[in-house]
């Protein structure tokens, strides 16, 4: 194995084992040269490639740091965020901000309802106590009549709905957006920080079951999928 690959694996192992934390300063190139007994250009290549892969971030005049963690979610497969977080060995928690009937005309149109109300929920999902998703969801009461009676701190809306009525089809769009002040505050984001916003509608039979907007801080989250 080339020496630069050995150094890359060493750095990744120290990060994955928790020895080097996100945002923390790692040993300098000079220190790594001494530790591995290699040329400086070998160490430089390893750190450069890890920076390209967004494992590390390099700051001129300050050093090389472990990049902030970006949590990943699947786009093409609709999955329960609590399951994704658990699969990473982390703790999921949810805070319900809104759970009520709504006559919002845009929501009624998106759900194909001639008259209201729709059901509306707003929930902040966190991973290890850090908010990573703001969920703004409208639900068709014909499909899920007991939606407002659920405790979504115990079971996510996604898990509840899929358990009762499997999804037949879905459509979605992804945007890069700046959130409004309300969403930004609940995601604990800096002013001007962008979000990844996913809008999705799903069907159960011939009925639109739900229309949802999912906001994710771009600095802590990315969306991925395979076909």
Automatic annotation (TrEMBL):
Task: Name the residues that span the membrane.
Answer: none
Which key words are in the record?
DNA-binding, Transcription, Transcription regulation
One protein family per Pfam: UTRA
InterPro entries cross-referenced by the UniProt entry: Bact_HTH_transcr_reg (IPR050679), Chorismate_lyase_/UTRA_dom_sf (IPR028978), His_ut_repres (IPR010248), Tscrpt_reg_HTH_GntR (IPR000524), UTRA (IPR011663), WH-like_DNA-bd_sf (IPR036388), WH_DNA-bd_sf (IPR036390)
Q: Please name the SMART domains in this protein's record.
A: HTH_GNTR, UTRA
Classification via Gene3D superfamilies: Chorismate lyase-like (3.40.1410.10), Winged helix-like DNA-binding domain superfamily/Winged helix DNA-binding domain (1.10.10.10)
> Residues in domain HTH gntR-type?
1-69
The record's annotation in SUPFAM superfamilies points to: Chorismate lyase-like, Winged helix' DNA-binding domain
Superkingdom of origin organism: Bacteria
**Protein name listed in UniProt:** Histidine utilization repressor
**Taxonomic classification, please?**
Bacteria, Pseudomonadati, Pseudomonadota, Betaproteobacteria, Burkholderiales
What's the name of its gene? hutC
């Amino acid at each position: 194995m080339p020496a630069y690959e050995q150094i890359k694996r060493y750095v990744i192992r120290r990060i994955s084992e928790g020895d080097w934390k996100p945002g923390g300063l790692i040993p300098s190139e000079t220190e790594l040269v001494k530790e591995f007994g290699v040329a400086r250009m070998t160490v430089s290549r390893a750190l450069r490639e890890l920076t390209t892969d967004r494992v590390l971030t390099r700051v001129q005049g300050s050093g090389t740091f472990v990049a902030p963690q970006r949590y990943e979610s699947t786009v093409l497969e609709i999955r329960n965020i609590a399951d994704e977080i658990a699969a990473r060995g982390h703790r999921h928690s949810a805070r319900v901000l809104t759970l009520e009937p709504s006559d919002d005309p845009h929501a009624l149109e998106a759900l194909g309802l001639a008259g209201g109300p729709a059901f509306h929920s707003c929930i902040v999902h966190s991973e290890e106590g850090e908010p990573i998703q703001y969920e703004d969801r409208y639900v068709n009461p014909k499909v899920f009549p007991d939606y407002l009676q659920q405790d979504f701190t115990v079971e996510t809306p996604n898990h509840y709905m899929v358990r009762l009525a499997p999804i037949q089809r879905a459509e979605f769009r992804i945007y890069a957006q700046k959130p409004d002040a309300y969403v930004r505050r609940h995601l604990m984001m800096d002013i001007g920080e962008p979000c990844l916003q996913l809008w999705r509608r799903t069907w159960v039979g011939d009925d639109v079951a739900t229309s949802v907007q999912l906001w994710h801080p771009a600095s802590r989250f990315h969306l991925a999928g395979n076909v």
